[in-house]
Structure formats: structure tokens, C-alpha cells
Amino acid sequence: MPVGLFRVCLLVITAIVNHPLFFPKENGTVPENTEEIIQKMKAREESLRLEQLRLEQEIADQEATQKALEKAAVVVEESKEGKVRWDMWTALSMVIFLLIELWRQDFQEGNWQDIGGEEDDMAVLGKAFKGVAFPDKAVLASFYEKRILGTTGDMARMREMVEGFADDLLEALRSVCNRDADMEVEDCVGVGSMYENWRVRKPFVCDLIVPFAPPEPYCFRCQTWCSGDSFPPGEQGYGTIKVCRADEDATGCICDKTKLGEDMLCLLHSQVSSTRPSSEMEDLLCFKNTQYLDADQVMKWFQIAVTKAWNRISHKYEFDLSFSLLDSPGALKIKFKSGKSIAFNLTPVVQYENSDVYFISHFPRSGLAADIPSSTHWFLTFAVYERRFIQLVSKTLPANACHVSCLQILSFLHGKQCSLTGPSGLTNYHLKTVLLHLLQSRPSQDWAPEKLEARLQDMLKFLEKCLHEKKLYHFFIGNGKVPAELGFPIIFQRAEPLNLFRPFVLRRDIYRKMVDTFHEMLRNMSALINEYTVHIPLAHTNGIRKEPL
């Protein structure tokens, strides 16, 4: 009972203590705080809703951007695959084209030097000869006698006069040069049409080459495109000339070929002797900061030396000497008081080793070396061997052989045609190369004087064939059948044949002009010859049709 009463009292006391009205000041603000909390919660809910919308928009934008990037990546990948496929087909097409071109060249070329069995090919050629009246033997003989034969004596007298004066001029040049510092000039050598007796067009011009060498203790080290060094295809026929000391590399020392350490010295060659100042090499006519001989520097030095030499001996002669052409540094002209003049070319050259092949800096009046890669590249001339070959073959031919006559007539026709229609890429050197090939391939009896007409037709047909194929190979380079009596360097016989028409392969305008000039020359040949021919009886001229120029 007391326990139950105690529990009832405890319950009543607890109820009174926890009644809301027992502490009125503490619980009087509850309703007001609730409304404020509800407003804040609504505001917070609104801000959360806006934030949610913003986040959803950002997510949507990111998804759109990702899709655009993925689409762009797919497009780029597809374009790369298409480009790879296109490049693959392009490369494959180029390879197939090159293989076809190489096969065609090999098929057409065959053994290019062996043209002795090409008489059948000659028979099916000559498309340009259709409808062209070719002069007969009587007309050709009369033309040659009247127009060409009389110039031989004039050439001989002019050669003699020019050679005598050139020797005197070079002797004076040696006297004005410093023997310890300047180049050493040797005797001149006559080359070209004037010394091969086939020049017909006036004015007559003698071509003289002057070999020179460096002063002691220097020497020239020559490098050609076929000596094992890497030369681009466009530099075939060229070489470089390095100026070195005579004892350089003579012992086979590796100090110039291998980099030595900073703390190592060569006991044979000191550092002082191995390095030469730039000014010293420029005094030796080298290109700036190199040891390679500069063709432009050589021509400037030669012109100055010739001018000094002429000033020393001018009082001995009753004529004036001057440089005649700006684009040909070695072109000289003798002017007499009577108004007459004589032109000749004096060109410095460098001998290749112990042969008669020479490095030449400039070709007077010729397109052979028109596009020289640089002034340190020198073109090789085989003019001395060409003259010797013609002299050697002439000894085996019948008396009064027609080989020189063919070249003279063809050169005359080409010169006349160029005076009418303008110059073309075809030069007299190309015509001489054709003759050299035919001289090697045909037997001696085929060059008898009565076969002038047939051999002239052979030359024209051979030239037509070369123009059609865009191939006319240099006679000496790559020709293993050069007579041993000439002593021709074996390195050039083993070299790849040099196509003289190669520059015209990519120059379609020049090639077209060259072909058109050749065809015009054929059409005008009869008229050009008859213009300089005495009257021939009608019996000899039947069938000859003179075409208008």
C-alpha cells in the first residue's frame, strides 16, 4: 500500500512538472519560429530546385559536347582511313608507272652503243621525210664545192694567226703573274669545229682552252660524278676541284678522317699546318669558306690577268683587243684599224689527273652547261679526245671521205634554219655526236665520197630517232668500244651513259621548239641548198621540188 501510494504521488509530480503551462515564458515563441522555419525551408527548396535545373542543363550540355566530339573523331578517323587508302593507291600507281617506264627504257635502249645492226630500224624511220624532196648527188656536190670547200683555206689562215697571238699573250700573262702566289698557266690547246675542219658558218671563231695549275705547294684533287661520290642525277657530267697541299693525305694519316680528342695530337700533322685561314683559300680562287675551286673567281682572275698581259704587249700590235661578250668571260675580239675583226675564245680549264679530259668553267656559245648547279661545279669536256678520234678514224677511211662533208652540210642547214626561225635546243655539238656514233658503227667503205647522199640521210634519220626517243648519248661516256689507241680513261668508259637530251625531257617547250626546227629544216632543205648551188642541167634536177621558205 505505501509503495502504491508513492508511485501515485511520483506520477502526479511528474505530470505537474512537464505541463506546458508550468513554464509559459520558454514555450511562448514556438508557433512564430515554426512559420519562419517553414519559410526558410520553402526558400531552400526553391534554391535547390533551381540548382537542380542548372545542373541538369550543364549535364545535358556536356553530353551534347561529348557526342559532338565523338562524331568529329569518327569523321577524322574516316578521313584518315580514306587518305591512307588514297595515298596507298597513289603510291601503287606511281610504282607501276615507274616500272613500266623503266621497262620501256630498257627495251628501247638495249645495247645503245651497238647501232651497227640498226639498218632495219633506219628503214622504218624517216616519217618526217615523207613528202620532202632530198637533193641528189649532183646538187649536193655542187653545193659543197661552191659554198663549203672554199672556206677551208680561210680557216687555216685564221687558226695560224690566232694561235700565234694567243701564245704571245699567254707568255706575257706569265710574266705579269706572281709565280709564288698566282696560278701557273700552260700552253693553249685548240679544240672544236675550227680544229676539226668542219666549221662553215661565219664569223669563224677559234676555241682555245688554257690549262692552269695552282702554285706550290698546292695541287688540285678532282672528283667526278662517276668517281664513287654521291652526285644527284642532274649533276651528271660535272665534277668538283679541291685545292689541297701536295703532301696532304699522302701518308694515309687518319687525323683528317677521324675526330681526335681534345687532349690528343697528331705527331705527323700539327694543328697549325692542318688549318688554313679563309683569306688564303680565297687567294687560291676558292669559294668562300671552302677548299673548292670557284669557276667565277677563276674567270675574274683570268680576265684581269689577260688585261694586264695585253697592256704589256699592246705596243707591238696595230690592233685593239677587247672582251666581246658579257655572258662569255673568255670571249675576245681583235679589232683592226680597217674595221675588220677576229673573234676567239680563251677559256681556262683544269686537267683531270694525267688525261686530256678537262674541267671547263664556261662553254662559249653553247647550251651544254647552261644550268650549272653552282660555281664550284665544273663541266667535263672531252673535246681533245673527240678531235683525236676523228683524226684516227679518218686514217682508215677512203680518200676524200664524206664524213666531214656530211657534218658541214648538216651544220650549214641547221644554222640557216635557226637564222629563219630562231635558235633551238639543238646544237652543233649534238650533230657532231651523231656523226661520231655513225663513224664507229659503219664500216670504212661506207664513207666513200660517192655515198655522201646516203650518209647524210643516215645522219638525219639517226637524229630523228634520237629526237623521237629523247635520247642522244654522249659518245665517250659509257662507251666501252672507244679505241685503245686514244688512251681514254677507263673510269668514264665504265660510267653510266650520259643522255645529252635529258635536260629536254622536262622542258617540253624547248623540246617542242627543237623538234619543230628539225622538221622545218627538212622541209626547207632543198630550197636552202639550191639557193647556194650553181645551175645544174635539167637532167640532174628532175624530181627536185623547191619549197617556199
Please describe what this structure looks like.
This protein is an alpha+beta fold and 549 residues long. It has a domain at 122-247 and 281-534: Beta Polymerase, domain 2. Helix content is 50%, strand content 11%. It has helices at 2-17, 24-27, 30-109, 119-124, 137-148, 151-176, 193-196, 271-274, 278-283, 295-313, 383-394, 403-421, 428-441, 452-469, 490-493, 508-531, 538-541, and strands spanning 184-185, 189-191, 205-213, 218-224, 238-245, 319-323, 331-336, 341-351, 358-360, 378-381. Strands 1, 2, 3, 4, 5, 6, 7, 8, 9 and 10 form a 10-stranded mixed β-sheet that branches. α6 (151-176) packs across α10 (295-313) and α12 packs across α14. Mean pLDDT is 79; it is low at 25-31, 107-125, 267-277 and 535-549. Residues 38-72 form a coiled coil. GO terms for molecular function: protein kinase inhibitor activity. Belongs to the ITPRIP family.
With helices defined by DSSP (H or I, 4 residues minimum), what is the helix count?
Answer: 17
Q: What proportion of the residues is helical, as a percent range?
A: 40-55%
In CATH, the topology of one domain is named Beta Polymerase, domain 2
Return the CATH architecture of one domain: 2-Layer Sandwich
Shape: elongated
Radius of gyration: 45 Å
CATH class type of one domain:
Alpha Beta
Helix- and strand-based class? alpha+beta
Strand composition percent:
5-15%
Order of helices and strands: HHHHHHEEHEEEHHHEEEEEHHHHHHH
Q: Main sheet, how many strands, which sense, barrel?
A: 10 strands, mixed
Q: What is the count of β-strands? A: 10
Q: For the residues shown, what is the average pLDDT?
A: 79
Parts with pLDDT < 50 across at least 5 consecutive residues: 25-31, 107-125, 267-277, 535-549
Distance between the termini: 162 Å
Pfam family, one: Mab-21_C
Keywords: Cell membrane, Coiled coil, Glycoprotein, Membrane, Nucleus, Signal, Transmembrane, Transmembrane helix
GO molecular function: protein kinase inhibitor activity
Protein name: Inositol 1,4,5-trisphosphate receptor-interacting protein
